[in-house]
């Protein structure tokens, strides 16, 4: 089914960006890699392994996600996922998020966007690129009840912006603004 979805998308024209969210197992990951092998698109990889309630969603290991590294791959972990990918007990502060993001970039990712929206002191996300780091600061906003999937939305918006030809930094800013608006309005 994954191969058929990629084939159908490719019939519409060249792919400029692909977003990977929950990949439940190695078989599906291999199918995706095979189907996208000759595609020159950006990959935005959201390494989701657990739901926001803590339920497991994937059987992939950190090693599987790290093997996706490449110059056109943007990794979008939240604080817990960044820690998990690097085998750290936790990532809490902006400094720790910056260090984790740069370590992941050093493994070959084109960019790493560490989502920090769950910090009580404010929503500071960290965008790491080779040789540079940018902080994307935002005020903590009141969240509408029942909203889920903000990390998924951010990765999807990031991919959409890259697909429009925006730079990684511009795509990050626009994706953050999109998700902030969603948290405030539900739309």
From TrEMBL:
<dbReference type="GO" id="GO:0005829">
    <property type="term" value="C:cytosol"/>
</dbReference>
<protein>
    <submittedName>
        <fullName>Phosphomethylpyrimidine kinase</fullName>
        <ecNumber>2.7.4.7</ecNumber>
    </submittedName>
</protein>
<dbReference type="Pfam" id="PF08543">
    <property type="entry name" value="Phos_pyr_kin"/>
</dbReference>
<dbReference type="InterPro" id="IPR029056">
    <property type="entry name" value="Ribokinase-like"/>
</dbReference>
<dbReference type="InterPro" id="IPR013749">
    <property type="entry name" value="PM/HMP-P_kinase-1"/>
</dbReference>
<dbReference type="GO" id="GO:0009229">
    <property type="term" value="P:thiamine diphosphate biosynthetic process"/>
</dbReference>
<dbReference type="GO" id="GO:0008972">
    <property type="term" value="F:phosphomethylpyrimidine kinase activity"/>
</dbReference>
<keyword id="KW-0418">Kinase</keyword>
<keyword id="KW-0808">Transferase</keyword>
<dbReference type="GO" id="GO:0009228">
    <property type="term" value="P:thiamine biosynthetic process"/>
</dbReference>
<feature type="domain" description="Pyridoxamine kinase/Phosphomethylpyrimidine kinase">
    <location>
        <begin position="2"/>
        <end position="184"/>
    </location>
</feature>
<dbReference type="GO" id="GO:0008902">
    <property type="term" value="F:hydroxymethylpyrimidine kinase activity"/>
</dbReference>
């Amino acid at each position: 089914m994954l191969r058929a979805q990629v084939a159908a998308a490719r019939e519409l024209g060249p792919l400029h960006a692909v977003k990977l969210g929950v990949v439940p197992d190695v078989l599906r990951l291999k199918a995706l890699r095979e189907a996208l092998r000759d595609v020159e698109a950006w990959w935005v990889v959201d390494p989701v392994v657990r739901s926001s309630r803590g339920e497991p969603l994937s059987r992939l290991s950190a090693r599987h996600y790290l093997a996706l590294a490449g110059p056109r791959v943007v990794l979008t972990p939240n604080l817990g996922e960044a820690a998990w990918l690097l085998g750290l007990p936790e990532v809490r502060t902006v400094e720790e998020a910056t260090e984790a993001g740069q370590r992941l970039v050093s493994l070959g990712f084109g960019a790493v966007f560490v989502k920090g929206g769950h910090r009580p002191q404010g929503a500071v996300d960290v965008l790491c690129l080779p040789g540079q780091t940018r902080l994307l600061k935002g005020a903590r906003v009141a969240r509408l009840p029942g909203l889920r999937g903000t990390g998924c939305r951010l990765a999807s918006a990031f991919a959409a912006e890259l697909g429009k030809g925006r730079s990684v930094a511009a795509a990050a800013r626009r994706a953050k603004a999109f998700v902030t608006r969603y948290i405030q309005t539900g739309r």
